[in-house]
Amino acid sequence: MRLAVIPGDGIGPEVIAEALKVLGEVVPAAEITRYDLGAARWHATGELLPESVLGELRQHDAILLGAVGDPSVPSGILERGLLLRLRFELDHHVNLRPARLYPGVRSPLADPPEIDMVVVREGTEGPYAGNGGLLRKDTPHEIATEVSLNTSFGVERVVRDAFARASNRQRRHLTLVHKTNVLTHAGSLWSRVVEEVSLQHPDVTVAYQHVDAATIHMVTDPGRYDVIVTDNLFGDILTDLAAAVTGGIGLAASGNMDVTRRNPSMFEPVHGSAPDIAGQGIADPTAAVLSVALLLDHLGEHESARRIEASVAFDLATRDHQSPGATYAIGDRLAALVSSNVRTG
Amino acid sequence: MRLAVIPGDGIGPEVIAEALKVLGEVVPAAEITRYDLGAARWHATGELLPESVLGELRQHDAILLGAVGDPSVPSGILERGLLLRLRFELDHHVNLRPARLYPGVRSPLADPPEIDMVVVREGTEGPYAGNGGLLRKDTPHEIATEVSLNTSFGVERVVRDAFARASNRQRRHLTLVHKTNVLTHAGSLWSRVVEEVSLQHPDVTVAYQHVDAATIHMVTDPGRYDVIVTDNLFGDILTDLAAAVTGGIGLAASGNMDVTRRNPSMFEPVHGSAPDIAGQGIADPTAAVLSVALLLDHLGEHESARRIEASVAFDLATRDHQSPGATYAIGDRLAALVSSNVRTG
Lengths: 345, 345
Ligand SMILES: CC(C)[C@H](C(=O)O)[C@@H](O)C(=O)O
Ligand SMILES: CC(C)[C@H](C(=O)O)[C@@H](O)C(=O)O
What we know:
Two copies of one chain form a homodimer. The first copy, chain A, is of the alpha/beta class.
């Protein structure tokens, strides 16, 4: 297993160290190459993602990323030039974001139901296409545009993936989230594709919700969701909210996946570089560890993935959530649990 | 006071009847003209918003709208052809949406702080501009676009309005919500305008949050928000979420305002036509009643607006939230409270 690791900025390197500690317990032979992409490299060399590095990354089975972003870098530079560029160049069309309320974890909701959903967020088009511009900048007649690009090809492949996932889950329920009543063109495409693909999945029940209504249900009735399929921007918004109601982005893992396997998929915690707590050794590495589980699942190492998930579940059920311990201590606990092959449930 | 009233579809007419009952207590001389726009008219005549009706609406001091939308009408027809057309034709650039957790109201949050925010949502541009299209429809090469249009003119006027509102509030705090790290063009325009206008408001402290992070804080720390200014789509999403954490859209009022007063402003509950409960007389008219208070404020009738708000606050603090009563009964209670000039706080 050849893995490329991009620790990145802020708490990125801190949580990645623990994720690799845990990975070492299940795949000791993993070959790991580190890439120092991120704010520091940009400051030092002006480089974000050199072609040669991109070429090297392509030679790996998967990529593990910590976080990119730093207050010293103008907004958008690292996001568009590095993180989104990786997602687009490597055709990460399925942005997979499970949200599960683990036993023992405190939700900000008063009366949380069982929550176990997975959001399939489109990852390579929509409002993230980078298509837009400024006209008459800095004049009273300035115009800024952002174009959401949605293709039949791009929508269909994630909708198919979402249905396949729904088919394999117990509840077999899929919710399309969009804003079809306002974004009528893109909404029409998404709705038609979901309708067509649903014909091939009579086992999956399908629902539709406008994105605004979905945010309401995410706090009043999140247990209703099983698989959600949605566009890049709505997925960005909904998955942060889903993470919040299931205990916070400190626990939320994600996979940026090319499910055709033509390119390596990239796994990363949903949280950012959190510059406010960077360097203090107090970041929770759980999301990074769970991202390793998603990575292993993607590479077919399901048994190892289950071991990591079970260890996280055990730790979350038993940890003192007021003081869960230092970053390294959580990593040590999880590594020990994985090595002792703890099982839950 | 000449008011145009559009009861609309579903529970619209039911909640509007109660809102007018309450209005009658404070402005008995209001001249009211009803317009039967909505699903029924569209089915009967194919008309959504005839020019002649639009011309008549313009002759009023303000418009009160119940809700539009019906499952029998394809998604987008009434929304784009009636509701959004009204907002755009009447230049409702300030979409004002207060969200306050009233004493006695149960939030879905476990430990809700004091919540008292107002969202200034841009109302006439952004992704709502209706600019987009379909190419090669129903082929494997279909493309759907949605263009977010943002102008210096359009952004500046709502940002100015939001700063003015923040200046008049106790906490004098304003949060710009956008997604500047991805939507870099529109994000740049919004950020620059907020920065410029802030120079004229040294009394207002300014914060920025990405929309995804804002949904997290809306459930983990909603007390932080005072005034939020944001674009049309982010505002749509955030205000439903803000309504949810403050007790639900059954309580959320809104104003679609042309603050230049060249066109009549339009006030409406944030909730929709709720076809599932329409005709049963069980819809909560509180949001419609609070929309009347916003309407009166806009027309300078502040004393009457405060009377209505105080009555709603009193009713919410004392009502049995399990069975708040029928639509008409809540209306009767609120009307009686307003006529007895109840005061709270
Ligand atoms: C950092 C940012 C570009 C990114 C996104 O918007 O996708 C992040 O919010 C995420 O969800 O992974
Ligand atoms: C019905 C719909 C067009 C509308 C909107 O998106 O603005 C509604 O959600 C709202 O918030 O008033």
